[in-house]
Structure formats: C-alpha cells, structure tokens
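User: Fold this, then the next.

Assistant: Folding the first:
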Amino acid sequence: MIQYDEAHHIFKLDTPNTSYIFGLTDESYPGQIYYGKKIEDTDLGYLLREDERPQPPSVLRREKAGYFDFYPMEYPSAGIGDARESCIGIHTMDGQEGLELRYRSHQIYAGKKPLEGLPATWDAEPAGTSETDPDSSDKTTDKEVQAADCSCSTLEVTLEDEVTGIWVILSYTAFEDTDAITRSVRVENKGERSIYLTKVLSACLHVEQENLEVLTLPGSWSRERQIQRQKLGYGSIVTESIRGISSHQDHPFMALVTENCTQTTGDVYAVNFVYSGNFIAKAMRDQFDQTRMVMGIHPDRFCWKLESGESFQAPEAVLVYSDEGLGKMTRAFHSLYRNHLIRGYWKDRRRPVLINNWEATYFDFDTEKLLAIAREAAERGIEMLVVDDGWFGYRSNDDSSLGDWQVNEKKLPGGFTYLAQEVNKLGMKLGIWLEPEMVSEDSNLYRAHPDWALQMNGREPGQARAQYVLDLSRPEVAEYVYGMIRDVLSSANIEYVKWDMNRLLSDVGNLTLPSDRQGEIMHRYMLAVYSLQDRLTKDFPQLLLENCCSGGGRFDPGMLYYSPQIWCSDDTDAIERLSIQEGTQLLYPLSCIGAHVSICPNHGTGRVTPFETRGVVALSGTFGYELDITRLSDEEKDQIPGQVAHYKQYSHLIRNGEYYRIASWRENHLCDCFMIVSKNRAEALCTYVQVLSQINCKSLRIRLQGLDPDAFYSVTEVTLAAGSENEAAGKRYQGAALMYAGILMPRVMGDFKARLLYIKRI
C-alpha cells in the first residue's frame, strides 16, 4: 500500500510488516524519514529536523551548503554541498557538475511497469509462462505460490533540476505479500543540450542507529559468498566490482545490522542489486552519527552521454528490513525472488536430475563414452545428460575454438541430432554447455573478425584463460552470436543450456563508438547479454537455462530473471559447499542453487566425503551429479536411486519451503544445520552435517524453527539409499518442544557425517 499525506507532504509505503517514509520540505527537497517496523502515522515531518541548525536555505540562506551536508536527502546529488556519497553526477557541455533536485510531481498506481532492457521484479507474470509441477506432492503449496501474483503498487516521484533541465524519476514498488520494497531510477534530459551522466545509483538509505555492523558477501573463485561482518565506525565500508561481472570477489549486496544481530534477533537493513555487471555498495557513518548506504552501477569507467530528449534507466535495487534478525530478512528475499523475479516454464516445476560429464571426462569424450554414462545414469533414475565443454570446433583443451559453435562430428558423429535421439530413447533429456560471450584467438571466428573482441586502439588485448571477450555492445556481434546459439538448439531436441562466462572484462574499448561514448561499453555489454538471454527464453520457452560464470561469479538477481537456477560454485566438495551455500541461501531460494554430487577424492580439494553426505548437501539445491557414474563402486551406484527418489519426494519443500538457519559450520567449526518448512507448517526437512567428530562430548542440542508450537509432529530420520523411500514414522513431539527445548543430535564416529530429518504434523 502506498499513500501520500498531502497535508504534511509525506509519502508512506507499507508492506505487511514494514513502513518506508519520506517527505518534502517547504522548498521541495525530498528527505528520508523512516524505514522500519510498520507504523500507521504519517505526520512524521518533524524527524527531518527543519528547526535545527543548519536550517533550510529559505530560513538561513548563508548555510545552504551546510544544510545539504546534513539533510537526509532521498536521492542525494553531487556538487551542491553534500560531501557524503552521492547517487547522481553529471558533466555538462560546459564542463561543470552539480544538480539541485526538487520535487516536481508524483503518481501512484496499482501494479508495476517493466524496466526497458533490464531484469526487474514483476507484479503478475504473463499468462501461460509458468506451470505448476505435476510431480509435486504438495498441491496446496503450489496453488499458494500461483496465487501470489498481482500484489504490489508503485510510486513514481519526479525531481527536477531547473538549471540543466534534468528530470530524475524515482520509482518505488511496495509488495503486499512480502516485506520488500524495490527502487529504480530513470534520468531524462529535458534540457536543450547534451549532458554526460557520470554516476546513476539506484538507491540510498539513511539509518540512525549506533553500533551498526556491515554485512557483505566477499569471496573468490570456488569460495564465493562468504559471510563477513565488520563494525562500522566513522568513514566508509565499500563492496564493489569493476570486473564487468557481479564477480566471485564481491557480491551486489550489503546489509546494516545491529550489534549482536542473530538469525532471530536484531535489526537488519539490506539492499540487493538486480544487476550482473559493475556495482558499488557503500555504507558511510558521518560526523552526526547518521549512516548513509547507497547501491548502484559503479561509476568507475561509466560515462553515459544523454542527448536532449533521451533517457537512461538504472537497474533495480531491492530493500528489505527485518526486526527479527537475518532469518526474517532471508525469507523476505526468498519470497520476493520466488514469486516476483524468477519466471517461465520452470518457475514452479521440479527440475530434472541431471548428470554432467565435465568432471567425468573433461575434454576426453566421444559419443560412445557419453552414451555409456547415459545408460548407467538412466538405469538409476537420472533424467538428463549434459554435454559440457569440448563438443564444438576442434576443441580438445581450453586453448581453441570458442566462438565456433558447430558440433565436431569427428568427436560426435551425427552431431547432437543423433546423440539426442539415443539419449531420448533411454528416457532422458539432453542438455549442453555454451560460453557464447567469448572467443579464442585460435578460432575461425577470431581469424575472420579480430575486431569483434573488446580492445583499445593500438593496444593488444590481454587474454585470460586463452580467450578474449566478444564485444557484444556491437549489435552485429550480438546478432551473430545469437544466430549460432539458435542454430545449435534448433538442430536437435536440446532441453537445457548451461550458459557460462569465464573471465573478467578487460581492454574495454569499442572500435565503432565515438570517443565520448566509450564509457558506455560496460553497461551496453550487460544490456546485450540480457537481450540475448531474453530472446533465448522467448524463442525456446521450455528450455531450462542455467547461468554460470566460472562457477558463481554472476550469481545475482539479474541472472535469476532469465534463468531459474545458477551454478553456485565450481567447488563441488560437499564440505566446502556448506559455507558457500550458506552465503548463497542468505539471499536466494534453494531451488535456484545449482548443487551436484561429485567424485571423491574431490578434484579440487582431494577430500574424501561419504557418498550419502554428498547427496544430503546437494539435496538443498537443484540436485544432480558431476562424475563418471560408470566408474563408481557398486555400493555408490546403489545409493543413487534413493537419492533421486528423495529429491523428487521433497522437491516441493526445496522449491517453496521457508528457510531457517540453525547452526553454521563457518561460525562454530563443528556442524552445519538448517531446515526448510512448508508454508502451512505441516512438514519440514532438517539437514544436519557433523563436519568434525569430537571425543568425550555429549550429544548436541538443536532447536528447530518455523513449526507450529501447538501442533504435534513425527520426526523421522531419512536414509538416502535405495529401498528406503517410506521410512517408518518417527518419535512424536510437540512443536513447542522441538523449537524451545530442542532435540538431540548424537555425536557419531568419523568426520563429514550427515543426517536428514523429515518432520510431519500428525
């Protein structure tokens, strides 16, 4: 719900449990007043401190610049006195900077408009693009998810700078079914002369609380999204990427949390960016103990020429406030992304269990080897074979052929047409891997069009992984790339694509754009990637698209808009995955997290983990296999049918259940535990991993969450092995006892032991 209190010039946006409030001064400057627990009153203009020094320019003209350096501007601009982090910057044709934005008008309407060329949350998904899962054992939950459409309202506030003729339209959407508010910005040049946008951030948030900490998700390749908290003193904390991707090293997310905030207690002010390219998030505590947090496209190497009459649309940012710790924040993000971001045929459907040949064969495979894997997999219930890198050009290692997206029929006689037919005969689907954004120096495409790679005049572009980046900001390059993808997918019954991207963007130059538009390339590149994936999902509406970027280097809300799942990390070690998946699950639904059972000793760590534990950890994602099934022991092969059966049995919970984090191996160095609970609290699945064994210790008490305290439940231990699909009913407990008193997890001999508990209301 959104309302405007005309008497007090106050805007108020309400979600089920939160309120976001800002107001206008007599001089039409929009100022942020409040974001927190839901309140009814709107007469809150006194919180803008207009009666305190420095007073507004109309009262105290001599302190105008000082006033701007104190005032909690809703969308702060650079160059007029506010020395804190700004959200927008310009450079005029006269070489000057500065904007003074005042309120001009506003409108409030039901629903939400799409953002042109950009991923964004939506109100009601177009009819026919999503279907419920016929395999689900929880039809009520699926119907509840379907009923979550059409449940938001939008406020657009237009600000104007009278000198330059620049209009800034601030868009806010409040959702009625989840505690999330989205923000985006559109800049319009109503003046007579061109200007250059040097910064256009998407959101600003002011928080007045002491003892705040900043939570971010830094990492590295194979160590993505590690949870980090640090105290915010005076000054700034920044998380950012200028790599051309949202990156492994940082993540487009930042939260301000109160000291000692836990999963269940404390205040959280969080922002997540719906964008997959360069970003900056910054929190700054100023001299008056006010904290300003901003999020948006990174201004480094960004400069967008805006001609008279043109507009620029910035990406969307998602704001979430929680007064009950990180867990409530997590569930708000999950709900929003499940119901208002992920789209398409696979949105609410169980994903097929796949087996990928990468860690099984790497580049060394042929048709018969792939079919041998498929035959063994089909016998044990696996539903899809994915052919990874090495099927195209003359690629026998990673030095060649990127860009030559034609099947190597010496390796795969009959191409994908024959392979798909044979795989389909086994009752399986066929999927493939692509890396369409890249080109190898040793490729026919590069030899024909060396100018199609990103490069700067007179400078040899640098390679990474023996490859260059195709300049997709050039329409002819993007069109050629899409034509190759379309031809491959049209040649056979290919039902899944893993879209990979394996390096950062460097040597960012375009040989066709004029000199004053070179600062647009990074964003134009990202828009081109979005356009390609949008075309792909429209031309092949039942295709299952999984994004990947050297693992989890582009795991962000922007990618989720086009693909319902993203490869979480190239680190497939089950124990390493606990902390990687914990950081990912902090924001993103389990149903979108690509997670597989891989071989042991693990190819990355050398660690040996029980096959059952690998299955339990992968069960909290899309679930699949990354190994050569023909080389497994009979004991391991015999466990696969049970793992697959249980994934199918509990898929409705994994897709739609509410997530509760109970224990973190990252924090306690002993065990990991979380649970997913159906929305009606009738059933739950609890995952527990004893990472390290201890001697002479009592059992560990675990307090469950999310259950009905007055209901009674049976608790059953699930064994992921063949023939154990219908475990006997477990012990009877009251919900209150499970949550407040807890249950005991016995210490067992050996490291890396997992337990899976199924909890059902009786």
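Now the next one, as you asked:
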Amino acid sequence: MALEKIHKENDIKNLSPEELNSLPDEIRRFLIEKISVTGGHLASNLGVVELTMALHLVLNLPDDKLIWDVGHQSYTHKLLTGRRDGFDGLRKYGGMSGFPKRKESSCDAFDTGHSSTSVSAGLGYVAARELSGENYSVVSVIGDGSMTGGMAYEALNNASHLKSNFIIVLNDNNMSISENVGGMSRYLSDLRTAQAYTGLKRGVEDTLKKMPGGGERLIQQMKRTKSGIKQLLVPGMFFEDMGITYLGPVDGHDVRRLVKVLRDAKRVNHAVLVHVITKKGKGYPPAEENPARFHGTGPFHIETGETAGESEKDSYTDVFSKVLADIGRKDEKVAAVTAAMADGTGLSRFARMFPKRFFDVGIAEEHAMTFAAGLAAGGMKPVFAVYSSFLQRAFDQTIHDVCLSNLPVVIAVDRAGLVGSDGETHQGVFDLSYLSMIPNMTVMSPKNRWEMADMLRFAVDFPYPVALRYPRGTAYEGLKQFRAPIEYGKSEVLFEEEDIAVIFVGHMSELAEKVRMELKDTGYACSLVNARFVKPLDTEMLEKLAEDHSLFVTIEENVLAGGFGERVLDYVNRAKLNVRVRSVGISDDYVEHGNVGLLRREVGLDKDTIVKQAVTDFLMIKGG
C-alpha cells in the first residue's frame, strides 16, 4: 500500500504514479476507520485529501510553511508528515491533537483552531522571510466559510501590497459547518459557474493565433490589460481588482491539475489566490449527504454512519433550543442570531419556526454581536447563541456596542467549561472572567435542566445585557427538588449547615453535591450553595454564611484568574469577613485535549482533590 511507504515529510514525492493514484482512496479508508473509533472532524478532512497531496508534492516541508485555517482539515497533512501511528490516540489526553500544533511537528507552521486567521499568519511569515533574507514558500489555506470572517478581508487588503510570492489557497466547498450564507458565498458560487472561462479563453487565443498579421499582437494586448476576457466573464473579479492574482477555479480532486496550478502560483512575485473546488465528505456517502452532521462527530458505525452510544437524554443545548422556540412562539420581539452554528447551538428549531426572526451572519462573531446590539436598539429581543471559545472574538463588541449602551442582548454561551477532545483552542474556560469584568453585564449559570429553562426565560425578559452560560453535554437532572424562582443577583442555598460552605457555579452542581456528601461522610458539617449569578455577586449571602462558616469552597469550571472564586475572595477581604476561601478552578494554563472527566482530574476539579483541600484548610483554621 502506498500509505505504508510514507514515514516522514516529503516521502510522498517518492511514490510512483500508480501509487499516487491509489493514495487518495487509501487515505480516505484510513481516516474513516480511525475516526469511527476516536471521533473527530471527518467531512472536512475527506474533502481535502487530493489538495493536501498536491501541496505536499509541490512544497518542501518543513522549510516551506503551510498554514491551515482553523486546522480541523489537517488530518491528511498529519498522515503525510509521518504521524500515522498517532491516529489511535487522536484527540485523547497525551495523544495527537486534532489541529495543527507546532510542538507536535516542525511541519505544523502555526497553531490554529479558530477561523479566518491563516492569511494574517501567512503574511507574518512572508514579512519574516523578507526581513531575514530567507527563501521559502508560504501557503495559507482558507475555506470559503472562513471568508465570511472580517479578519480575512483585513489580511487580503494587506496582502494586495506584497512584492514577493505568497500563495493563498481558497478551499471552496460551499460549507463552513452549516451551509454558507451571504454575499461572498454568492460571489464564489458565481465563480464556480465560470469554470468554462479558462477553456473559452484558450479557444479564443488559439483562434487569434491563426489570424494573419495581428493575432499575436492582440493576444499580448489582452494580457497587458490584465486578462480582459476574465474581467468580462468572471463577475466582479474581486481578488484581481485588489491586486491579488486569481487562478481558478480548479478541481480540488484532480492532483495533477492542482500540482500544475500550485507550481504556476509559486512563480508569481506577489500575492496569488488559487481557487479550489472540493466536496466536503467526499468518498463516504453519509458524510457527503450530511456534511454538517460529520463536521465534528463522535465515534460512529461505518456501515450506517449512525453515532455510537449517543445519549438519548437532552443536552443543555437541547433544552435551550426547545425553550427558546416556546418563548419565540409567545413573543414576536424575540430574534435569534448565530455565526454559522445554527445546528451546533440548537437554533435550527427556531430558524424553522420563525425564519424571518432568525439570522445566520456566517463566521463573523464580531459582526454578530454588534448586529444583535442593533436589533436590541431597534426594539427587538435578540438572543445570540455562540460557543464560549468563539465568543472571545467578540469581546470588544460586547464591551463597546452592547454593554456601553446597556442594551438587552442575551448571549447564550454554549460549550462553556472544558469541552474535551478539541483541546486548547476550544475549551470554554475564560468567559466567566472576561464577561464579569464588563460594566452592565449580568452573568448567570444554571445548575440543571430545569434551571436552564427558568434562566433563559428570565434572561429574555431582562432589560439589560445578560450572558447565560452552560456546558456541552447532557443536562444534569439532579437537585430537581430545588427550583426557587430566579431573583436577580440572588443565589440559592440548597443545604444549610455550618463550618464549610461549598459554593458552586452552574454545571459544577453534580461535583459539588459529591464533595458535600464526602465531607459529611468524613464528619464535617457542610452547606451547599448554588451561586446562580456570577455577576452581580450575592454579597448578602456571603455575609450571612460567614456568620457560622469558617471556610468557603468555591467551584467553577473557569480559570481562577478573574473568575468567580477570585471575586468571592476579593469581597471577603474587602468586607473583612472572618472566613477562609478556597477557590477551585483551572490554573493559569491552557488545557489540552482529552476526555473531560480525565481533564478535570488533571486540573484538580474532582471530588477527591477538592475534599482533601477542604479538609486541610479546615483543620488549619481550627488549629488541628
């Protein structure tokens, strides 16, 4: 098998033509088999097999720099750089990342995980190359979905001024995660339909050459006018008009054609964009038919494509989806906004029911936030559903456009806390810190599925900015007996005793319950408090608890710096309360990929670690 002959980078160049022809099928079979066991990004990787092969045939890695936008389509790249054995541990703790990682291989030129970044990073490499007097190629691969992100256009504007080679490969599969939307999507669609342009231009040139006398002169004149036929036949010529040479569209599954156009691109002495047409999910019918479903998948049965061991219980996202649709049925002012994540955030249901009040703005979180602010200023009640990791991109807009004007925007912060296998770029462990520092922002987090529903109803009717934070995965069904009405800024005391008070944020409820029971079994009196609101802080509750408790243990799945525990400690110190605070959260570090339960043990968010810390602190207080 051809794949077995690849042990390191550039080995692909030693394969025979016959082996190169068989390699795409071998790679696809390998990926399907491995990802069916480990889970991962399948459809995007199946779509770029031939493109990746062509890039590796043309480039000399690691000297040349290949930068993948987002990076979830880099599995074939990892195979071709000798990491085949790592796929058994793909996205597992201590194993191979599902994204490019510089610490994993010198062939991974840039760590990526969020969209629309590769052109900017590539430009930085080009500048470094010129400043250091080196001579290597820089290629940035960016998807058409990522072209809805404003950062890509900032970089393209900058790239138009280059006087040295820089190759941008536009991987166009008409998909981001969900189907693409907006003007750029329509523009690229027009370009796809203009594929006949190349053949027509060649035919015109052949005809002109046969003209006696002036044929060659006319051809040269056409070229001097920057390919006039292309200007007529390809609408807008957006990239050419910016000063970026456009090559394509090219069949992204034709290795020979791709190699030829990439070699042509290397000869251009400025920025050049190669437009490649690919099919997301190619080679695996279930992924071709439903690429969004196989964008990021858990383990699945190869024969049917059905997910293995999928929980039938509602996730927090499911609860959000159902409740928001019910709210939207009763209140015509409610609108929903997503940044290309309608399925992932649960907004597809709302979109089907109320299409006029649903807005998918594409991969453009910054725009989505300010757009939601505009909706709110215009009298609507917008709910912007977004993953915690991607909300980071709209931080400035949250401060400046939503909270400064105190507008009633609901930010539904999905995938908060540790999300597991996608690793550092996707862990939602910073939002409590950066959201709670913003004036006028209210931050809430539910303890279980019923509180999730209650908090969403509260948030939609709240007349100011509010963030509702909840995790990935099955909604907790414990503590059902506690369902006090949501009261602004007030926590919920679930069990009231003395000595130790365990105060938890949101989905840390199940862990906090276990900590309390272990402490009680060990002989300590222990209260259990559901914070509900991270901001505003329930200072009355803290003062009351301080009267008969010696130790507060705060539990949050967020970085400690700027988090809930730090806010509690700050108030305790300022109010001079006679109580010690043990803050449990994530230390000042990025958390790698792996199973969430394992990751919690690694960072100290597990029952045994917390109980041990609490007992040690309590004994120290009592002089034991």
